[in-house]
Design a protein that fits this description.
209 residues, alpha/beta, TIM Barrel, 7-stranded parallel beta sheet, 39% helix, 13% strand, hydrolase, Polysaccharide deacetylase family protein, Glyco_hydro/deAcase_b/a-brl, Polysacc_deacetylase_ArnD
C-alpha cells in the first residue's frame, strides 16, 4: 500500500523539518511543489496548467538539470514561482557518505548562485535524511518535506487512486509533492488539472513557499 500521508508521529519526531505551513491555515493557502526538474515539455506543461488557474508553486530543482536547461529555470522564476535545492544529482542520503552528500547539496547551491536565482530552501531526494544532515543543513536554510505525496512517479498506482486518496486530505497549509519528470508525466498530465480544479472549487489559494 502506498502511503500518501505519513502518520502524525513522523513529523512529531522530526520537528525541525517543514511538513506543512500551519500559520497559513487561516488564509486557506495550499502549496503545490514539483521535484526533479526542470525538464523540457513537462515543466512547460506544469507552468501552463498553473497559469490557467493563476496558481503559484515551488520547484525543487536538480542542479544538473538547471545547468542543462538554464532558460527553463529562469522561466520558472520569471513566472513568479519559487525554486529550491534538490541536490546536484538527486543523491540518496542513505547511500553516500555525509561529506559526499553535503558536497552534492552545496554544488546545487552554487548553480543557484551562478544563475542568480534565490533558493527558498532544501528538499532531500526521497525524503531521506539523518540527524547529522538535519542539524547541519538547517543551519543555512529550511528543509521542506511534505503533507501529501501524490506518488505520481509510481506506475503501480492509478490516477484515480491518487486523486481519491489525496484530494480528501488537502487542508489549508498542506504541502503537496508532484514531480515534473518523464517518469511522473503519465500521471501528472491527468492529475494536475484535477488537483488544480479541486483547490479552486474549494476556495484554496495556491501559493509558492
Amino acid at each position: 500500500m502506498f502511503i500518501h500521508r505519513l502518520p502524525s508521529f513522523v513529523p512529531a519526531i522530526l520537528p525541525n523539518l517543514i511538513w506543512e505551513k500551519k500559520a497559513d491555515a487561516t488564509e486557506n493557502k495550499v502549496y503545490f511543489t514539483f521535484d526533479d526538474g526542470p525538464s523540457p515539455e513537462i515543466t512547460n506543461f506544469v507552468l501552463e496548467e498553473l497559469d490557467k488557474f493563476q496558481a503559484k508553486a515551488t520547484f525543487f530543482c536538480i542542479g544538473k538539470n538547471m545547468r542543462s536547461f538554464p532558460d527553463l529555470a529562469q522561466t520558472v522564476q520569471l513566472a513568479g514561482h519559487s525554486l529550491g535545492n534538490h541536490t546536484m544529482n538527486h543523491v540518496n542520503a542513505w547511500k553516500v557518505s555525509h561529506e559526499a552528500y553535503l558536497a552534492n547539496k552545496m554544488a546545487c547551491d552554487e548553480v543557484f548562485s551562478e544563475m542568480g536565482i534565490p533558493s527558498i530552501g532544501f528538499r532531500p531526494p526521497y525524503g531521506r535524511v539523518n540527524r547529522a544532515l538535519i542539524n547541519q543543513v538547517s543551519e543555512v536554510g529550511p528543509i521542506y518535506m511534505w503533507t501529501l505525496l501524490t506518488g505520481d512517479y509510481n506506475s503501480s498506482l492509478s490516477h484515480v487512486s491518487i486523486t481519491k486518496n489525496c484530494l480528501k486530505n488537502i487542508q489549508a497549509g498542506s504541502i503537496i509533492v508532484f514531480h515534473d519528470s518523464q517518469k511522473a508525466y503519465p500521471h501528472l498530465k491527468i492529475i494536475l488539472p484535477e488537483f488544480l480544479a479541486y483547490c479552486r472549487d474549494n476556495g484554496f489559494q495556491l501559493s509558492a513557499l
